[in-house]
């Protein structure tokens, strides 16, 4: 069985736009799969601006990308995310890099020039002026053995991606600065981290591990993979999960300041069922964290919900 | 006159043993009780004649008849039991008598023996149980270490979840959990690692690792999870690390508040 691996370097996209002209143009990349019809995986790291993924009946991966406008950028930029914090997040996702606290900050990452309250005498008023050269964004998509990875060189640039993929795909998405992630109609496993935006998914058959800081998480399952664990975490955002009413699961929930609601017939257990059942007097085991355990339909895989200020809404279909 | 005396006089009278004076006394008592004295006289006469009746003695033939009947009955019994030898044996050993007793005794003896075996495990069985549980723990450890390297976050979560079942995790497991806490790319996995490590906070290495991780983390949720953990453990050793965290630029304000509160409470 030949294992064909192809690297498809799709494009170096250049957009030249005069500043006063129309909306940013959308560019399209079409990425065919090595093994069309078989399960694939989509990986996106460090995208900034918003991602929409929809499952469709075609065989290729179709990527529509456009630069986000200034208005959209303003909406998603978060005040405390600047220079060093952005650098921190970048290093988080590349764990082989040295620890940021010790590594010297390279000059070209210094973003202090983009802060509006810089004190100099330059006149930045652009009324009556044309923008020359426009903005360029570099977007590449690599396909290897049914895994499609979308990379962007200018990770600070805001790009809005609209992607159509075959339904049987697993997703691994990590965004950094902002923008929402919207997933629809996928039969697979979702692993999404969107620290500064919300995550919304519907028409999902499979499982999910989702996390956001300031955004909310909302996911609607048509079917749930009974073999897989799930986990949802936020800091301030609420979490809403809709599960089929026959779902068997053990929910493990903790929120500092939020509330938990469900319309399932959930059997709430006081303690960690695992520690109590198997407590053979292990000397070192301590039950510190205050989790609430809820059993659905007799129990099953563990679904973890955790948040600081967010509330949980666990609904049945 | 009391009852005892009355009945004594009465019986004596019926036996014709009373002298005149006492007879008068008895008759006076009867009159006092409202009884007819003539009835008494009739009663005496009847008593005397009853004494004269003869009790018929059994004839010689009773003895003969009895033995004849006995023999006939025995014959009937013998015809029911087949076999000559059985008859001889049963006559010799009188099974009827002590056989049931022996049977009962044997049954209780056996019951007691088996009950003893069931309820008190022998030394070798205890040893077997200990080795089995150690083997199961070992298998769980191996599975956990393997799964921790899985490219899928969901499987890594499962791996961390199995650590709840371990009783005494060895160094390999602790180091693997700490490495996951500091390096895993997925937020949810790192949070689960904090939780699992807090469960083993009795181990010194675990506490040191958690404190060391505080300034390694850039994610606000993990920073808060570690801070809360230190508070729950009342770990005063963590205060220097927490103060260093406060000095970090661009620390999330929610984290900042939480850390400041925790430092206060840890004093």
Features:
heterodimer; A: about 325 residues; mainly beta; 19-stranded mixed sheet; 3 helices; flat; disordered N terminus; B: about 270 residues; mainly alpha; Leucine-rich Repeat Variant; 14 helices; about 75% helix
Written overview of the protein:
- The complex is a heterodimer of chains A (317) and B (267).
- Chain A is mostly beta strands.
- Chain A contains three helices and 19 strands.
- Chain A has helices at 70-76, 83-93, 273-277; strands spanning 27-31, 40-47, 51-56, 61-67, 139-144, 147-152, 159-166, 169-175, 181-193, 199-211, 217-224, 230-233, 239-243, 249-255, 260-262, 267-269, 292-296, 301-307, 312-316.
- Chain A has a 19-stranded mixed beta sheet that branches.
- By secondary structure, chain B is mainly alpha-helical.
- Among the domains of chain B are: 3-51, no CATH class; 137-266, Leucine-rich Repeat Variant.
- Chain B starts with a helix and ends with a helix.
- At the A-B interface, helix 2, strand 9, strand 10, strand 12 and strand 18 of A face helix 8, helix 10 and helix 12 of B.
Mean model confidence by pLDDT of chain A: 77
Tally the helices of chain B: what do you get? 14
Kindly report the greatest chain-chain contact and the residue count on each side: A-B, 51 and 45 residues
Q: Give the helices and strands of chain A as they follow along the chain.
A: EEEEHHEEEEEEEEEEEEHEEE
Task: Decide which structural class fits the backbone of chain A.
Answer: mainly beta
From N to C, what is the helix and strand string of chain B?
HHHHHHHHHHHHHH
Low-confidence stretches of chain A: 1-22, 79-87, 90-113, 276-284
The major pleated sheet of chain B works out as: none
Number of helices of chain A: 3
N/C terminus separation of chain B: 104 Å
Question: Which class of the domain at 137-266 in chain B in CATH terms?
Answer: Mainly Alpha
Oligomeric form of this entry? heterodimer
How confident is the prediction overall: mean pLDDT of chain B?
84
Biggest β-sheet strands, sense, barrel of chain A: 19 strands, mixed
| DSSP strand count of chain B | 0
Structural class of chain B: mainly alpha
CATH architecture of the domain at 137-266 in chain B: Alpha Horseshoe
């Amino acid at each position: 069985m030949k294992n064909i691996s192809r690297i498809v370097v799709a494009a170096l996209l250049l957009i030249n736009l005069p500043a006063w002209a129309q909306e940013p143009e959308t560019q399209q990349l079409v990425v065919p799969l090595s093994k069309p019809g078989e399960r694939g995986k989509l990986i996106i790291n460090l995208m900034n601006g918003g991602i929409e993924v929809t499952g469709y009946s075609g065989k290729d991966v179709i990527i529509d990308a456009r630069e986000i406008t200034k208005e959209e950028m303003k909406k998603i930029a978060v005040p405390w995310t600047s220079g060093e914090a952005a650098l921190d997040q970048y290093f988080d996702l590349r764990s082989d890099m040295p620890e940021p606290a010790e590594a010297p900050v390279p000059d070209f990452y210094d973003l202090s020039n983009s802060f509006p309250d810089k004190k100099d005498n330059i006149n930045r008023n652009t009324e009556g002026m044309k923008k020359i050269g426009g903005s360029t964004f570099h977007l590449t998509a690599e396909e290897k053995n049914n895994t499609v990875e979308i990379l962007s060189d200018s990770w600070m640039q805001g790009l809005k991606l609209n992607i159509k993929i075959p339904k049987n795909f697993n997703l691994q998405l990590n965004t950094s600065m902002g923008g929402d992630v919207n997933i629809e109609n996928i039969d697979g496993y979702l692993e999404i981290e969107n620290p500064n935006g919300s995550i919304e998914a519907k028409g999902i058959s499979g499982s999910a591990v989702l996390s956001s800081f300031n955004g909310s998480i909302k996911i609607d399952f048509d079917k749930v993979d009974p073999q897989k664990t799930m986990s949802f975490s936020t800091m301030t955002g609420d979490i809403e999960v809709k599960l089929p009413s026959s779902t068997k699961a053990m929910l493990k929930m903790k929120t500092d300041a939020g509330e938990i609601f469900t319309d399932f017939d959930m059997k709430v257990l006081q303690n960690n069922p695992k520690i109590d059942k198997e407590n053979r007097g292990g000397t070192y085991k301590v039950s510190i964290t205050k989790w609430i355990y809820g059993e659905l339909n007799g129990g099953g895989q563990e679904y973890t919900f955790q948040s600081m200020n967010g509330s949980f809404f666990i609904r049945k279909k | 006159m009391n009852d005892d005396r009355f009945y004594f006089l009465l019986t004596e009278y019926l036996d014709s043993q009373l002298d005149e004076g006492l007879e008068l006394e008895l008759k006076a008592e009867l009159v006092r009780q409202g009884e007819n004295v003539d009835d008494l006289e009739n009663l005496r006469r009847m008593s005397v004649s009853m004494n004269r009746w003869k009790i018929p003695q059994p004839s010689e033939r009773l003895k003969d008849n009895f033995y004849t009947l006995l023999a006939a009955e025995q014959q009937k019994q013998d015809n029911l039991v087949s076999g000559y030898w059985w008859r001889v044996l049963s006559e010799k050993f009188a099974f009827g008598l002590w056989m049931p007793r022996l049977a009962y005794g044997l049954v209780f003896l056996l019951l007691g023996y088996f009950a003893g075996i069931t309820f008190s495990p022998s030394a070798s069985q205890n040893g077997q149980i200990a080795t089995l549980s150690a083997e199961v723990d070992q298998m769980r450890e191996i599975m956990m270490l393997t799964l921790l390297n899985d490219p899928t976050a969901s499987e890594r979560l499962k791996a961390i979840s199995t650590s709840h079942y371990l009783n005494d995790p060895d160094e390999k497991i602790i180091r693997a959990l700490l490495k996951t806490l500091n390096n895993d790319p997925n937020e949810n996995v790192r949070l689960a690692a904090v939780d699992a490590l807090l469960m083993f906070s009795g181990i010194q290495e675990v506490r040191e690792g958690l404190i060391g991780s505080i300034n390694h983390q850039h994610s606000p949720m993990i920073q808060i999870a570690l801070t809360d953990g230190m508070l729950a453990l009342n770990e005063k050793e963590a205060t220097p690390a927490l103060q260093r965290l406060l000095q970090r630029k661009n620390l999330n304000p929610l984290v900042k508040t939480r850390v400041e509160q925790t430092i206060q409470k840890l004093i």
